[in-house]
Design a protein that fits this description.
By secondary structure, this protein is of the alpha/beta class. It has 21 helices and 17 strands. The longest helix is centred in the first third of the chain and has 20 residues.
Length: 487
């Protein structure tokens, strides 16, 4: 689907904040800043606590407070913020096109999590190796990866002063009040792209209506994934919103990823030596805390089926905890990171590697999408459909409501009520190869039908990006920089 982006027009007139609305927004942001300061000790303790499982949280602390050496070049700079792994992967086709379309621009890619940062280094290694040379012979990297500073006004201002971005692209749900306010004050054009907002998130946002209204109102471009997402955003601020589709539909496995999945499948030994019948493989993808115990307990009733279950926890810091659970409950398991042949006695393969999700989908027969068994909102089922695998989802998919509903309607996915039903449905699909084939074809067709979000997003962004077409001038500090330090 490569049609032009459509516009979800607001029935209400465009919001022009009056004196009263502006005063409320300023007061709300001041309260927000004070609360941020009060929470600073908790933020530091949180980083230290997360570092117990993930030592990477102890690295690059200066970046989290906006500290870096100011750049001296004058190349136009496009800044894209993707909070973690999912958003980073979704940004991949868009960033590829931006690199091709703007060969004389620098790019800044920011994250909030170490896993998002690690994903960027892996996905964009080729871009990281590229450089630009200015008229004075100074060579600078085209792409820099950093953490986003915490949303303290002093840290955000310092970050803007260091990097001097021309355009800021925020992925999906990243509405940081001080970030957006500072961008507007400095004349940096700002867009929220691939935006999504569930009913649950909308209810939370309404508790901070003035703050949310001011932030969304200051965005130069707002591009939502779906019409329901656009409508929910418009309920906060009446404004026109482009509907461009979901960028994740434009992510397809590379040849190397397909080959890695095929090699993994070949490493799975049949149950009987010399047998040509392969084992059936069920993938539990992107599982969240609490789900593995429910699913693997239910699996105990079906172990006699001889299936291999691949468990891939959503967060890598939980790999070891899941391994300990498997050991404690007597399940025979192997780790993917060991790279060994998966023996016929192996009941569970722990997917403890990063960046191999497509390989896991390629290697399985049926995929269950985690985060949906418990009320956590679900995870992205699009990659499983792109590989043509029948998909199972649990009852809780509110973070990906429309994509899930469309996949079920297309016959690419089935909803199950609980953990036991996952394995009951797996048994049904194993016994009905015709149904598996039908669902596989439906999944591929569903993915193909929804492609094109990258081009539609670029169409919406082109006028905005045009302002970053000229080299910068190193001018005197702006009035924003000259203000007294803010909260």
């Amino acid at each position: 689907m490569n049609k032009a982006p459509e516009l979800a027009s607001s029935a209400a007139p465009s919001l022009i904040p009056g004196r009263s609305a502006g005063w409320r927004a300023a007061l709300a942001r001041s309260i927000y800043c004070v609360c941020g300061w009060l929470l600073t000790p908790i933020i530091i303790l949180y980083l230290l606590w997360r570092a117990r499982r993930q030592p990477e949280y102890l690295q690059h602390w200066a970046e989290r407070w906006g500290m870096a050496i100011p750049r001296q070049d004058t190349f136009p700079l496009i800044w894209l913020h993707a909070v973690s792994v999912g958003e980073t992967r979704a940004a991949q086709p868009l960033l590829q096109r931006l690199f091709e379309s703007y060969p004389t621009h620098r790019f800044l890619l920011t994250h909030m999590t170490p896993t998002g940062r690690a994903t960027s280094h892996k996905l964009f290694a080729a871009f990281l190796a590229q450089t630009l040379t200015d008229d004075q012979g100074q060579t600078v990297p085209r792409l820099t990866i950093s953490y986003l500073p915490y949303d303290f006004l002093f840290a955000v201002r310092r970050f803007f002063k260091t990097w001097r971005p021309d355009v800021l692209l925020l992925m999906e749900t990243e509405l940081w009040p001080n970030l957006i306010h500072t961008a507007a004050a400095r004349g940096c054009k700002t867009a929220l792209i691939n935006a999504r907002l569930s009913e649950k998130s909308l209810r939370k946002l309404r508790r901070f209506h003035s703050l949310a209204q001011a932030g969304i109102g200051k965005l130069d471009v707002l591009a939502a994934q779906t019409y329901p997402d656009a409508a929910r955003l418009q309920s906060i601020v009446p404004r026109d919103i482009a509907v461009t589709g979901n960028l994740k539909f434009d992510i397809w496995p590379t040849r190397q990823q397909q080959e890695a999945g095929q090699q993994l499948r070949q490493q799975i030994a049949p149950l009987t030596q010399g047998s040509e019948k392969p084992r059936s493989v069920l993938l539990l993808a992107s599982t969240r805390e609490g789900e593995e115990a429910l699913l693997l307990t239910a699996y105990a009733e079906y172990i006699h089926q001889g299936w291999l279950v691949i468990v891939v926890p959503r967060h890598p810091q939980r790999f070891e905890a899941v391994a300990q659970w498997l050991k404690m409950h007597g399940l025979v398991y192997q780790r993917r990171s060991e790279g060994q042949v998966i023996g016929p006695d192996c009941q569970v393969l722990l997917g403890d590697t990063m960046g191999e999700m497509f390989a896991y989908y390629e290697a399985c027969d049926v995929a269950f999408i985690g985060g949906s068994l418990l009320p956590l909102g679900g995870q992205n089922l699009i990659e499983a459909c792109a590989v043509g695998r029948p998909v199972l989802v649990g009852p809780h998919t509110f973070n990906f409501a429309e994509a899930t509903a469309q996949a079920i309607e297309a016959g690419a996915a089935l909803r199950v009520p609980d953990a036991e039903a996952v394995f009951l449905k797996m048994q049904h699909l194993e016994m009905d190869p015709a149904l598996r084939e039908t669902m596989s074809k439906a999944a591929l067709a569903f993915s193909q039908r929804h492609r094109g979000a990258t081009q539609r997003t670029l169409d919406v962004l082109t006028p905005l990006l045009a302002q970053a077409a000229q080299p910068q001038t190193l001018a005197a500090p702006s009035p924003v920089d000259s203000e007294a330090p803010g909260l």
